[in-house]
Design brief:
nine-stranded mixed beta sheet, five-stranded mixed beta sheet, about 425 residues, RNA-binding, 2 domains
Length: about 425
RNA sequence: GUGGCCGUAGCUCAAUGGUAGAGCUCCAGAUUGUGAUUCUGGCUGUUGCGGGUUCGAGUCCCGUCGGCCACCCCA
């Protein structure tokens, strides 16, 4: 039996990597004052067709439930957000700064970087139309990526402006019903030969290419870039009007993050969607909004291909999984004494393991090593003393069992973790 | 959804149309209480699945499922 196509099993190593990614996301989002929320995994199919049209259903993981309801696994979180905000916006002071880590689904043929299921960090700011909100969101995107150990030569956030293109189309007297099509051609222009794009754009080709090659020409985007420079983040950002994004609802600044190598799909993407909440709530609530999303799959691929990020992940996984103490029971007569001490150590917050059944001493030390224990404590003929062995240095110390806790607390490699687990906080958040 | 390439042990891969193998991993042991290396032994296969051609198919053909890549689409 295999998992369904496009779905993943998370073995302990994978789960640790996933936890690491989630931890970084939560940590940075909270640094920016965002609070976490979530919604249902399953929604009425209408919620998505209302926003994107009936064709979207071919991409949805949808079915009819036992109550004859047409339902779909969420492909994205924004429609749910719009619904929740429309229903509850009066309960919160503006602007809302919300983030979430939903698992999202899509019924598509899987490929590298695109599965049928993924986890997608979302951050949205609701109820703020100032350009400072756009800057804040882009800064968050940059810092999220920096938190994984990526530098300015690993990724870039390319920033553009839908409104700039809308103005362009107005001045060129392009009828409104053609806007979406033209924008999609521009969005695609980077990935196909110029001549092909030129044919599609017709008379618009010449002025459009002039803009694309000019890299700028927007006073608004210049202000965005200046504001990011003040924060010291200019190296991570580029103005690029070739970024349009496929979704129709974006209305202002839009941006996408890419690996510098250009080998992978977009790491993140988003922008301003001032009209979407009104549209999805049938005009009941109208609030300016902006947000972006970052998926775990492409991010994981880039971590794997970037040495600094890969090492950071490896350290985090070891920190999450490694034991503090392995108890070696050399004489079965001491098992009861050992278990009493194991309980006391675990109460103190240490991570402690031991062999559930009688095993040779050599085997027990080998297991201690493999589980990444810092210290092994041997219970045997020495009782009421025990042998405390620091595995890395292979140094051994004979300690009275009554003094064991105090001795362990004096070991620098162990005390920090025990203290931390007493207090609070996610495992492995070492860099705070 | 369309097209191309691929599918052999848990993993990485061998095997001219002629008896399915290696390395790694895993498990057990190498004179009774200390991790590495080494040595010995052991487990794992309907060669993705189903048909066909052939005296004989892992190998050739068809179908199907799965994977990778491109297109489509884009969270």
């Amino acid at each position: 039996m295999q998992p369904l196509p496009g779905f993943r099993d998370f073995l302990p190593q994978d789960c640790a990597a996933r936890n690491y990614i989630f931890d970084r996301w939560r940590e940075v989002a909270r640094r920016y004052g965002f609070v976490e929320w979530d919604g249902p995994v399953l929604e009425p199919t209408d919620l998505y067709t209302k926003k994107s049209g009936a064709e979207i259903v071919t991409q949805l993981f949808n079915f009819t439930d036992k109550g004859e309801r047409e339902v779909a696994m969420r492909p994205e979180l924004t429609p749910t957000l719009a619904r929740v905000v429309a229903a509850h916006e009066r309960e919160f002071k503006k602007p809302l700064k919300w983030f979430s880590i939903p698992q999202c689904f899509r019924y598509e043929k899987q490929q590298r970087g695109r599965l049928r299921e993924h986890f997608q960090f979302n951050a949205d700011i609701i109820g703020e139309d100032s350009l400072d909100a756009d800057v804040e969101l882009i800064a968050l995107c940059v810092d999220l990526l920096r938190a994984f150990g990526f530098a300015a030569n690993d990724f870039v956030v390319r920033v553009s402006d839908r409104e700039f293109w809308i103005d362009f189309l107005r001045t060129q007297n392009v009828p409104e019903e053609n806007w979406q099509e033209i924008l999609q051609i521009i969005d695609r222009s980077e990935r196909e030969p110029r001549e092909k794009t030129a044919v599609k754009l017709g008379p618009l080709a010449e002025p459009a290419f002039k803009i694309l090659d000019g890299k700028g020409g927007s006073e608004k985007l210049d202000r965005v870039l200046a504001a990011l420079r003040v924060r010291g983040l200019a190296d991570f950002v580029e103005i690029d009007l070739g970024i349009v994004r496929g979704l129709a609802y974006y209305s202002g600044v839009v941006f996408e993050a890419f690996d510098r190598g250009g080998k992978l799909r977009a790491l993140a993407g988003g922008g301003r969607y001032d009209n979407l909440i009104a549209q999805l709530s049938d005009g009941a609530v109208s609030l300016p909004a902006l947000g972006f999303a970052m998926g775990d799959v492409v991010l994981g691929e880039l971590i794997g291909e970037t040495q600094a990020a890969r090492e950071k992940l490896g350290t985090a996984i070891a920190t999450e999984q490694n034991l503090d103490i392995y108890i070696v029971i050399a004489k079965e007569e001491r098992r009861a004494d050992a278990l009493a001490k194991i309980q006391a150590l675990r109460d103190r917050g240490y991570r402690v393991d031991y062999s559930l059944t009688a095993a040779k001493v050599g085997k027990q030390f080998q297991t201690a090593e493999q589980l990444g224990a810092r210290v092994a404590i041997l219970f045997g003929d020495e009782w009421p003393q025990v042998r405390v062995k620091t595995l890395a240095s292979r140094e051994e110390q004979l300690i009275g069992n009554e003094e064991m806790l105090a001795y362990l607390a004096s070991l620098p490699s162990l005390s920090s973790r025990a203290e931390r687990s007493d207090v609070e906080g996610p495992r492995g958040s070492t860099d705070r």
